[in-house]
Request: fold
Amino acid sequence: MFIGGGARFAIGLTLRPMVDELGWERSQIGMAVAVFQVISAATMYLAGTLADRISLRLIIGGGLVLSSVSIALMSLVAAPWHAVVVYGVLFAVGNGAASVAPVGVMVTRAFPARTGLANAAASSGMTVGQLVIIAVLAAVLVTIGWRSVFVWLGVAFLLVLFPVLAAIPRASDGNTRSVRPPPSGLSVAMAARTRQFWLLILVYAVCGFGDFFVTTHVVAFAQDRGISALLAGNLLALMGLTGLLGVMVAGYWSDRSGPVWPTALSFAARVGAFALVTFDQSPLSVAIFALVFGVTFLITAPLTVIFVRDSFGTRNLGALTGLITMVHHICGGIGAYLGARIFDATYGYRIAFIIMLMASAVALLLTLSLRKPQQAA
Reply:
């Protein structure tokens, strides 16, 4: 999660130097990000479904290998379609396979009594990766260039492969399911006939819509507002630090009162952050916006399995978690691409911020409409 989190957010760090050198429009990078979101989302659903049935070593290990090769190939892109194929398709499949969906299944099996906190700790790897990896890359980007950034990320995936495979408990693999009592709960089709399922789908759709709009564009936006490239990159990294705080508090809180209130509070914070940056785009406001949004960024990630477990049971935990995460990421791709298109058309992000503000307010109301989940039979 640490390496994957840092690698996934590197596209936002390298967006401006890439378009400046290659003569592309931001929407062409936005298209690659949008395709990445769709493909990785579909892969997460498949990985979550397979996590209910086969070895997690095979799923996560294969994802790490493909991630290593594909992110390194980003150093060779010369045309927009190269980025779409390499980042949008190949890296998306690898990143989706070694993602929060199969990891969430593994962690939930291992820590059934403290699922929220355990998943928060695992998901925090993404925020720490964003903090450490992006901070390091931002510091050396001017020296090594954006192409070398992708090469070193590919090396990082290979270095982590064997320790990760060794650390996955054999008890998490599908071939040991016969020694456990059969899980209970709803099928995917049965869950899809409930009001709770569609409310969750809508909440996670809006969450992803805002998440990847911000992480794709915040560095370029900060530079547009007069913040230096180094400071803008470190701002993205610091979002990982505030995200670590948010995700751990949310995980701890959800074990005691459920996932609804942490989710609602995160959308309330987003409403305030988007309102601020809509009307005041000074460097100070941009920094406050980024850090406040960072607190909310990964809050819903560890809560997905809690919502699914408490609402629908554990019978199809991986499939339902992967399905909700898939919607989150597809809408994230739409948000990233829409932000780029709005910038290319208006030379600014104000309209995009207004859209995100309204969407976050709707998501807050939808979250408050969620029923407190009762353990599924």
Confidence is low (pLDDT under 50) at residues 174-180. Residues 142 and 230 are 9 Å apart (CA to CA).
